[in-house]
């Protein structure tokens, strides 16, 4: 397992390094159109061929990965923190506070946010840069994507409030936000990490779908999600294997994240077991 | 007995062969649930398809020859300088439920059509002046329709007016066309069955249509539509996307056809409305003819046609596509791709290139946004190509893809946009059909609608020419006026016409008598003559 | 019970009002594609606009709608010109069927895989399960739906495959979390068998959060299923939702929001009741 972990770290380092260094590694600009060779197969000049406008796929993959692999985890972190806050506080206080919080959560899950997103695009300047547009998009996803997990965290918090270690913590003077932050939420790490891990690919794909509303990346900037949208033609039209490379990259990155998050969860748990065995020691 | 056997068998075989050539169910897709079955109300594509197949019209414009041909009327005459039209109706016609058709139904239809509360686009096309439209029933088979003022292209407008029954209990659903609506399964399909009372016969006297039924499958996704065609689940596709056309052609070249240039044009325009909230210095750029001509010359239309449309489009010339045989001004040629000439024009206008960026006289960097409808891959690709082309002359373009309604609101109400890239299908060949686009006082005058008085001299001239052609009964004169409008539009470029798309269709080789047209409806304009091979029954 | 029904009604009404408000304020509400029809006169265009503005006064629209709702009248769809009640009656069964199939598949796959990965203790199995769930969570719904169309498989199964990674991830992390609690470690140390530990100790510990997850999985499933219905031409409410959004059909949208809210809140309420019942029993 240690070898697997090292491999996962290596893959992530290479992926992030390639994405961040896209300007230096990419053989061509992501927007340059080689109009004499649209939809070309891989070659020495174009490692993954070209898209239907003659743009180098490899360059677009590198730049697209940079956009998505930096912003999607950031948005996922925002949604996880919000879920932890709302779910944790609702579970901690219980009673009418919990009922109101869960009502808000249920509303969040039911409302068609599509029109809010359309409205947000309307207030953004027409000439907003593609980079700014995609940042706004991912931030929106982060702020809207927390509700489902909040419910699970609330349930877990409610349960934990009755546990012995929380009783012990209360007895030693912990309460409120500190109690939730130091004793309850760490024991819900699994749920929080699940929320984070799920959100990353979901947000990457959702960002691409939001381009139908004018959000997300705009031409010529690519994102991993916008490259994945090309697959919709692949099934029925052009099943060329190199078109699947963005999907393969996303699967590999997501899997590597998962391996590391699993390990992180296990290591933290074992260190807390040690602290629980020695009461009074700080968590 | 044995001597009779062989001839009897031969007769039987012949009969079954003839019978086998008739019948069958033709299947093709429509993109959405129809919003109405009323032929007089505004229609989207799906409703329009159903109404075309079920509606009976007094005359039909042949989509190949573009000439009007008799249908429910055996003859017609345009009289009183275009203010009156006389129809002689065919005898013995009945609606699909057996209700007889007569001049009374024509009068009823016209009354409904011209009802001001209905707001029918077809009715609006007939509104030539103040006053009522009256219908005089001369006999059960003869009718005069009188208009308060001359209506240009009067006869051919009746191609879009399906007749309603004044007496049938089925009301709008009683059909005079080759088919009637038999079944409607929400979200799945609409089944049209052969109209047993359809009047038309083929040259051998056989009653039409040949088909038993037409099944219209509701299918939103173009790729899935192509898949279903490949599997034989549907037998025709209208308005094929170019990449899907290429894919189907690679499977079997005989199943696809490029019917030639259509009347579907893609174009770009700048927002010239003085009340728009865009920056004043940008409005100065956009109102300059030199600027618009420069942008036009910097766009490589040939590349667009080759790459985005896989060669199934051609650089557009102007306001009228060559598909419109009579009205197209053949003297005009597409604007050339000439970035050097573009830069010269810009310099003449006071622009200068500094470190690869174009600046105006005040030093503002030339940057603007092009708005288009999202989820249209071809249009987004065109915008990306324009972005690259204009970058070569130092202009920075931002592509803004918005949802359809948001685009309509911006171009029609708020005017909060800088440039817009859209495509439109001109189904009415006559210039009268686009009066609202070219008259400066009208709302479809996209670049600067609803002007109290024309903002420029050339718009004043276009107004004059459009009104002149609308009030003339002489087609040659009307052509002269419309040719001149096209020339002015070519010079001033309020619309920068980009490409005219070809009509791409897929028709299974099992469908006989199909002659796809570049004009809408491309594949089934002669639905009553379509046949299916026996194996497809 | 009465309180719960009251809460359900209140949330439905709020969700409907918020959804309607968002649609109303989003750009394009008064726009109609007929505005591009050059045959229409200025008066006709004005009449079209007035017709769309008829619902612009949101308070009046909503009050009128509620009055109709009390008599079972759900209004008329502006874009389809049909009674909404009839549309829902025709379309809802198909969606509910697909929803049930998708959820059953997702839970069976997700829970079984998570339990098997945890029980087997095999790193290879866990990695494989992680990889499979990573594959499906990274695949855009449209692509998988198209694959299923090509293969002629039921679209509900595609939805199930897209939902199961989320359930798998949460379940696995919950089980992981639970297995590391002191009393579970004690039970294992005392020699309790794997299945006994899972059934008698781990499951009860994880149950509150699992039950919460059941509730939110309905909402997740609806979010996944609706776009699949659009792509695969399932005559369900997904197509209606798409139609309502495209055409800014306010009556249709409000009813669909109420329907989705009803399903979501019922699911979360039932899961809350089950969770509370479970906790009481365990106590």
Characteristics of this structure?
heterotrimer, A: 283 residues, mainly alpha, 13 helices, 0% strand, disordered C terminus, C: 283 residues
Overview of the molecule:
The complex is a heterotrimer of chains A (283), B (537) and C (283). Chain A has 283 residues and is mainly α. Helices cover 69% and strands 0% of the residues of chain A. In chain A, helix 3 runs parallel beside helix 7 and helix 4 (95-110) packs antiparallel against helix 7. The two termini of chain A are 27 Å apart. Chain B has 537 residues and is of the alpha+beta class. In chain B, the strands form six sheets. In chain B, strands 11, 12, 13, 16, 17, 18 and 19 form a seven-stranded mixed β-sheet that branches. A four-stranded mixed β-sheet of chain B has the order 1-10-9-8, with helices on one face. In chain B, helix 9 (289-298) packs antiparallel against helix 11 and helix 15 runs antiparallel to helix 16. Mean pLDDT of chain B is 91; it is low at 17-21. Helices cover 81% and strands 0% of the residues of chain C. Chain C is built from eleven helices and no strands. Chain C is elongated. The two termini of chain C are 23 Å apart. The chains are: A mainly alpha (283), B alpha+beta (537), C mainly alpha (283).
